[in-house]
Structure formats: structure tokens, C-alpha cells
Design a protein that fits this description.
Two copies of one chain form a homodimer. With 199 residues, chain A is an alpha/beta fold. Chain A has eight helices and six strands.
């Protein structure tokens, strides 16, 4: 016999496609849906649909927003002369949580990755160059993860930014605060030595 | 500043309510929704809505089904003289996977639990008694988890079944196959000794 009915199997599949959700979790989520009341399911479906409809990308920094220009880009308190380039909107959230950065952002929405056939034209690089062309911008901070694809993207963009006469920097890579030398991987350790500073 | 837009926060909340989903997973899922195309979101929303609409409970065994009477209850191959009583539809799936049981099921949809104000009238016990009243039924196997609430439910139901002159049994509790005595908890070990059989 089939263990699950057709609609239920479809429901499991929907959840299984989500990041970090395995088979067992997907089944639990599907049962959770059945346990909800009709109005709760309607509410859930509406929230999903509305989020997709309302949330777009900021016309300046390409971060997710419900307006044309996002809260950060339209804030007079933010320093428009500095742009921090990140891969994903969640990286903006991570940096905002530090409460240490008062510049603006630019979200690329990915990395150059020939393996996944993602080229520079698939990322928001053109939009970054347009912003860099303005006299206002003095510094671009590259905050891309130090993977092979990330490194390639960082190098590619910094080369494109050269002609604009803008300071291009990158965030420091090294031992995390509270981390143990013993457990750090070799590449991180090498980066930490390379990036040493006088005390 | 708000880290997430309003619609996005709502979306995160929807996922965070799901079983086994923490804060970080909920955020990842919400970003996943944004990464979907419009048609994929429409498809997802439809699957959720349809599952909720189409899936109901079998009028005989109360298991989830898309028909009036489920596949198991309507199958001529299943032994209608034996009813296995379980808490949840997922327990039926677990037992079906063994391919060792050819009787029918009865899903209670919970356990008697005064702490959560779930009384006998909130469970599908009345429906079980109606089935037990038929001459066809010879044995009821109680397969409720051996928690305090489960034990209470097992005892409560077996007492109600007494007058029907039906054999009432329960599944064996003991050391799981492949399990190690050393790591078994005391209660399981006590149950294993109590349930010993001659070899």
C-alpha cells in the first residue's frame, strides 16, 4: 500500500525542498499542517503569498525591502560614502546586528560560480558599478565569504572598481573571537598570520 | 532599525511555529520562499491548501485519508477481526512499514492528558467502542507509547473494552533490537524483565 495519500505526499515534498529540512522533519511539518484549523491554514497561505508579493529589492542596494528604496539607503543617518558588498540579504542582517557599521550595503545575490553556471551578469554587479560612478562613494568594503567562489568574486569586483579611484577594502579573516588556535583550520590560521597587526 | 520587513517577520513567524523549526531555520525557510519564482510560490500555496481541503479522517478507523473509508479499512486483504489502537496517523505509517501486520487500525488522535486538558471525550474512543460492539472484532492490540499519559489511556480503554468479551493485548516493551543493555533506561529494562519469554 501507499504509506501516504497523494495530497499528503505532495505536502511532504513541498517541505522537503526547503533548506535544512530532511525527510522526517518534512513529515512532521505536513502533519502539523493537518493539525491546523482551516482559518490558520488560510492565514498561513496568505502570509506566504503576501510576503512574496510585497517583498522586492531596493532599487539602490538590492537588499530585500517592501519599499522602492530600503530603510538603510533612505536613512539620513547612514554614511553614503561607504558601500559594504555582501552576497545575500541575510549577510546585511548579520552585519546590522553588530551595530558597528553605519555605511550602506550592496547585495550581489550570489557569487560568481562557473560550476553552477552563475556568471557576473547574473549578479547585481552592474548596479554596484553604477553606484560607484557617483562622486559620493569613497570606499567599497568587500564582505564576501572567503570560499573559492567568494575569492573570485571579490577579485573580479575589485578589479572592476579600480578605474573609479575608490578605496577598495575587504573584511579581516582570522581566528574568531573566543576561538581556539588548536581547532582553527589551516587556511584560517594562514589568513590570521597574513593579516597580523602591530599591537 | 528593524532587521526584517513586516511581511518577512510574519513569514519567519509562520515557519517558527512548525515543529522542530528554530529561529535560524525559520529565517532560512523565509529566504527560500523569496528565492522561489511566483509560479513556484503559487504551486506551494495550492499544495498546502489542497492538502488541508482534501485530507480528512476515515469514518471507520479515523486515520487520515482522502476517501470516506481509508485504503486499509476498505481492503479485502486486511483482517477486520483485529484492531490495533494507536495515538497518531504517523504510528500507522510506522507499523505499516514493518509489513508484519495485516489487521486494521484505530487512531485515537492523542492520549488522555489532564495536564493538557485532553479528556477521553476529546479522543476517538467512542468510535472504537462502536467498532468493538460488532461481532467481527476478536482482538484489540493497544500500541500506545508507554508514557504516563499513554499508560493511563491504555488502562482506560482496556477497561472499557472488558464488557465486549474481546481479547485485549498490548505490544511488547523491552530492549530494542540492536540495543545495548548498558544504555537502556531502568524502566525499559524493568519492562524487558517483566515481559521475558521462555526460549
Amino acid at each position: 500500500m501507499m504509506l501516504y495519500t497523494q495530497s499528503f505526499s505532495k505536502l511532504i515534498d513541498i517541505f522537503r525542498k526547503m533548506p535544512g529540512v530532511g525527510n522526517k522533519s518534512a513529515v512532521r511539518m505536513a502533519y502539523y499542517i493537518l493539525s491546523l484549523s482551516d482559518s490558520e491554514v488560510t492565514e498561513m497561505v496568505n502570509v506566504i503569498r503576501q510576503a512574496k508579493e510585497k517583498i522586492g529589492y531596493c532599487s539602490v542596494c538590492q537588499n530585500t525591502t517592501e519599499q522602492d528604496v530600503c530603510e538603510i539607503c533612505s536613512s539620513p543617518k547612514r554614511d553614503k560614502s561607504v558601500i559594504c558588498v555582501v552576497e545575500q540579504p541575510k549577510d546585511v542582517v548579520a552585519l546590522e546586528k553588530t551595530r558597528e557599521y553605519y555605511g550602506t550595503y550592496h547585495v550581489l545575490h550570489g557569487c560568481i560560480s562557473p560550476m553552477d553556471s552563475i556568471g557576473p551578469e547574473d549578479l547585481k554587479i552592474k548596479e554596484l558599478l553604477e553606484r560607484a560612478a557617483s562622486d559620493e562613494v569613497k570606499e567599497v568594503i568587500m564582505a564576501i565569504s572567503p570560499s573559492i567562489e567568494g575569492e573570485a568574486t571579490t577579485m573580479y569586483i575589485s578589479r572592476l572598481l579600480k578605474p573609479f579611484n575608490i578605496k577598495v577594502t575587504r573584511i579581516a579573516y582570522g581566528i574568531p573571537v573566543g576561538g581556539d588556535l588548536e581547532y582553527a583550520d589551516q587556511i584560517t590560521l594562514a589568513k590570521a598570520i597574513e593579516g597580523r597587526r602591530e599591537i
